[in-house]
Specification:
Layout (H helix, E strand, L loop, with lengths): L9 H5 L3 H20 L4 H12 L1 H4 L13 H21 L4 H27 L7 H29 L2 H13 L18 H16 L2 H11 L8 H4 L10 H26 L5 H20 L5 H30 L6 H64 L1
InterPro entries: MFS_trans_sf
Protein name: MFS transporter, PAT family, beta-lactamase induction signal transducer AmpG
Keywords: Membrane, Transmembrane, Transmembrane helix
Amino acid sequence: MDRRAKLPPIFLLGLTNSTYGMAGGFACVVLPEMLAAQGVSGGRIGAIVAWILLALVWSFFLSPMLDVRFSRRRYALVFAALASSGVAVTVMHHGNSFLVEMVMVATYAAASLLQAAVGGWMGSLISRQDDAKLGAWFAIGNTGAGGLMILVGGDLVFRLRPAAAAAALAAMMMLPTLIYLVVPAPGPDRRLASESFRQFFGEIVALLRRRTVLIVLVLFLMPAASFALCNILAGVGADFHASASVINFSGGIGVLLAGLAGSLAVPILARRIPLKGLYLAIGVVGALFTFGVWAMPRMPWVFALALIGENIFQASAFSVEAGIAFESIGSDNPLASTQFSLLMAASGVPITYMGLIDSHIYDLHGLTGGMLADAGISVAVCMVLGAWLIWLRGRAKQAA
């Protein structure tokens, strides 16, 4: 029987990414809210979140281990347990901002390796026509589960004793791993790890010589559709006079619905717009939305609108990125996790440096400066990249 006939529905394969999404929701909204309650400044919170999210980038260099010795199911389970434990430790010791930053960096690194493991695992199982659909549900697993963490986690952290809240959040993050038990896992590769690393870096060199891959990497590395502003909004709710309940509700239900809407829209739009063009279009429209929010009064409902809207565009951008990554993997790719990790690491680079830039400008010029910088840079980059893609297409036509 065809192995794909035994696979669970595509939406379940995509939801294997939910633990990663919960770790991101905790790092980007629940943690900033906890730090703000401790009196940490908005700029400092943004910098902490940016350094945490940087783990998505450097953890890529550890990803070759995911394709050797053990099955990706086992790696996914181990890193899910590490990420859940890290969140629990953070909740119990959130009064120590330095310890929190160190623990959360390790936590997000574990979550990023978990995403690489399940991304390579699921991407190598599906057929090519399911790439966009899996990319959408992978994004839903990210943003939707992140919204659930924001909605539930914020209340648990502030209403329960630290030990009880830590145990509840860790159990919630481990719940999606039950899906792993019903998904076929390829047998482990018994090659030596050093052999895999050598092959991996050889493959990367060959990959970087391909024109199409270089174009995709440029798109992912530039701040065209990073929407890093999402990662500091939760920590600056006071600028909009938003209460903790407004932050939790808009960050929970709002982000959950935003993730669903933004992700499910991508497969429909991708039928008419090439993915690269769609990616830049999302960046431009999202930046225009940020300009619109900047012009509005600083009120609680505007904060909710900003947080929900920014997450719609960020979810859409992530869905496009995931679809491109799955398309590049193909079936039965022995280095599927490392290749997926490479592309996800590239997409995480602008989120990190734009988060640092937004935080620095926030400290100097407040929320107004941060919003204008984030939106202005995105529009400028999208225009340059769009002109570059048109020029490349023209050269290709001339060569033909």
